[in-house]
Amino acid sequence: MPKYVYGFAEGSRDMKDLLGGKGANLAEMVGLGLPVPPGFTITTEACRSYLQRGAEPPELAEQVQAHLADLEKAMGKRLGHPTDPLLVSVRSGARFSMPGMMETVLNVGLTDRSVAGLARAAADERFAWDSYRRLVQMFGRTVLGIDGALFDEALERAKAERHTTNDLDLDAADLRAVVDAFKAIVRAESGREFPQDPREQLTLAVRAVFDSWNAPRAVSYRRQERIPGGLGTAVNVVAMVFGNLGPDSGTGVAFTRDPATGRPGVYGDYLANAQGEDVVAGVRNTRPLTELEQLDRASYRRLLEIMRILERHYRDLCDIEFTIERGTLWILQTRVGKRTAAAAFVVACQLVDEGLIDLDEALRRVSGDQLGQLMFPRFDAEAPKRLLTVGMNASPGAATGVVVFDSAAAVTRARSGQGVILVRRETNPDDLDGMIAAKGVLTSRGGRTSHAAVVARGMGRTCVCGAEELVVDERARRLLAPGGVEVAEGEVLSIDGSTGEVFLGEVPVVDSPVVEYFQGSIDPAGPQADELVRAVHRLIGHADARRRLQVRANADTGQDAERARRFGAQGIGLCRSEHLFLGERRELVERLVLAETDADRAAALAEMLPVQRAEVIELFRAMDGLPVTIRLLDPPLHEFLPDLTELAVRVGIAEERGEVADRDVALLAAVRRLHESNPMFGLRGVRLGIVLPGLFGMQVRAIAQAAAHVRADGVEVRAEIMVPLVGAVQELQAAVDEATAVLAEEGRAAGVPLDALIGTMIELPRAALTAGTIAEAAQFFSFGTNDLTQTTWGFSRDDVEGSFFATYLECGVFAVSPFESLDAEGVGRLIRIAVAEGRRTRADLKLGVCGEHGGDPASVHFFHQAGLDYVSCSPFRIPIARLEAGRAAVLERLESSR
Ligand code: PEP
Ligand code: MG
């Protein structure tokens, strides 16, 4: 019989797949002897079975019954008993943390009868009715699917009648009336009475948690975080402890280090006389955790001691939810805490210094995505700014954009290309799409552990929360700031998630210190370097020491190449030579296309040569001693020519006026002749070299002359000549023959031969499948994964983004665009075939990649595993690729040591 329910004493932190993160960590803490209220966990397997069958597995009820009986025995109370009732919480807890996305029901077991028993047992009538109203409210919304706003409004009305805005001002009689109002809402909206059988409450609450796995916001969150949809959630049933039992009770969240900066210290929020959902929902503004020391010194001390125990045990920053019930501390949850990118780097290095982890593990704990976030720009400190207010610095970064007041508007405006700041009183899980679309999130309520803060940090979105001075009127779509300033939807605000500052209008942004460090303007050992810069320096250094993959840059100009070198590039993996002849110099190619005689063609090529040579000279100088891969002309010819329609109109008008130029007529004829329906699959790449004799030869000559020129100045040249879009070895061989002849000729002229490598891009499935033969003519392969993706899938890379990709992502054909992150299964298979067959032909075949995927973290891991020699990516992504290449090597070590 499958075991669907585990008591806390039966589990451990290694059982997250089955017990979910929360259940596994609760079990672990029980094992550590920490004060966790007793309870049990219903497994993710039970949830999966329920979701598949549409009903609980038949064994579940009996197993829950048996564990409930144990729990009742341990507590000496019966669930929902009229005199001294046991109450339980029913909490979701999936394998991966999905904060606030799924459901929780507290105080299960309260009924019209047991509420009186609870009041007597606790000697506190207000508390009992407060707990009951919370149950009806949560149960109504979560289990019965009633609009939560109806309950909120009824509660607001009760407060208004008392002329207060604070729920603590409601007494027992008020709350009793609120319960009546809530039950009436349940009756009216669901057509049934609020259930008075505690067992039924429990069964329905568990079912609602199972169902919440597929709630739209949970589905959305999983897509964003790339969490598989089939895992299901576990459900934790835990004996209630009460933070709402008066001023000596309360609830809070603690972090063992600052999750924003990584600094050690006491960090968190506390709310006296409250239950957990009040903290997360930002219902009342929380107090800093340090104030707990004054309120309850003993609990505070015990909490700090437990924080230390947990951090040493998990060897990482932990976050903890706790409740104090009349002076007794209970730990309700812990997990390795979410943190900002900066905190991830800083904490990892601190833990190394504290001897808790080694550098390999520190490297595994940071990611290229996080490093990318740290390279975001910040607000210019010197720029004039108009400070509107200061809130809490919940998630760092600098964001400027137009203000919107709801998720839908954020999505619409972002789609139209605007930067958006989503402003809300407080966010809830339904705002997720808007938060994803926005550049930044600003709320007027809630602390650093509010929903807005937690979710924004997880996504790397800038967030300022709890900006209390702002009055956010979501309905009127405006906010009021101190001094009578009004900001309407569509006006611009700038928010600084590192300081909590909110500015009116747009503020200019500047480079981050991490970028300045990579550029060499901050010395990591100097006084300008802060803890973050030092941590980045240390971990990227370790990555460099560990990685097997080299990292090169895609750079077209000397300037790009210099920047790339500062960022750590070990060469140029792709110089797209066409950039020289697009734009203003288009005419040079036009002349080549229009040439009718060999002499005309030679004259056109002679004009192109010095342009090409000058550029390559700069690249060689910038990369002195490092390899420079220059790709011969690749794009469809028509890209160099005028637009057909525009030219036809121009010629038509000129003809009418009798002023038509012969050159234009010839040009129009050429443009018509070269017009293609699918230019990406037309006359481009190596095909150009074959159709336009002398073109590739001119480029190779320019490279050879550039080499001879800079060598005279002592520059060490390592040239690599790359032929694009090859499908058959015969195409490549023609280009290689031409290049070899030119190199020999120029070598003779210069008196020194240039031993450039000649290789090819692998961009077509046919090239990958015949790589063994192609390698006979190639000294290196560079995988052009942009084209290889488009040609493998048959997706036009220029059209897909605005077309059906959104739908494909939504219905899960892929979790991320294959143009962003390599399709390891399909495109990756072609790469593996080409690697194996290419090396079989030529053992020293050099292998690299220069498509966009070269700077994508997941793809870098694939390229490492596939055994490539290097990745090449845009200069700004070089540090990311270096870090991920190091992580790939370290992960491989770990795997092989297991
Ligand atoms: C590629 O196809 O991956 C590539 C690098 O070439 P381009 O993007 O210039 O076509
Ligand atoms: Mg290409």
From TrEMBL:
Cofactors, names only: Mg(2+)
Ranges for domain PEP-utilising enzyme C-terminal: 544-886
Reactions that this protein is recorded to catalyse: pyruvate + phosphate + ATP = phosphoenolpyruvate + AMP + diphosphate + H(+)
A family per Pfam: PEP-utilizers
InterPro entries listed in its UniProt record: ATP_grasp_subdomain_1, PEP-util_enz_mobile_dom, PEP_util_AS, PEP_util_C, Phosphohistidine_dom_sf, PPDK_AMP/ATP-bd, Pyruvate_phosphate_dikinase, Pyrv/PenolPyrv_kinase-like_dom
PROSITE patterns: PEP_ENZYMES_PHOS_SITE
Gene Ontology terms for molecular function: pyruvate, phosphate dikinase activity
Keywords (A to Z) from UniProt: ATP-binding, Kinase, Magnesium, Metal-binding, Nucleotide-binding, Pyruvate, Transferase
EC number(s) reported in the record: 2.7.9.1
Span of domain PEP-utilising enzyme mobile: 418-500
Major enzyme class: transferase
Highest taxon in the source lineage: Bacteria
Domain Pyruvate phosphate dikinase AMP/ATP-binding: 17-54, 59-285, 293-343
Keyword Isomerase part of the UniProt annotation: no
Similarity-based family: Belongs to the PEP-utilizing enzyme family.
Alphabetized PANTHER family for the sequence: PHOSPHOENOLPYRUVATE DIKINASE-RELATED (PTHR22931), PYRUVATE, PHOSPHATE DIKINASE 1, CHLOROPLASTIC (PTHR22931:SF9)
Protein name: Pyruvate, phosphate dikinase
Source organism (scientific name): Pseudonocardia hispaniensis
Lineage: Bacteria, Bacillati, Actinomycetota, Actinomycetes, Pseudonocardiales
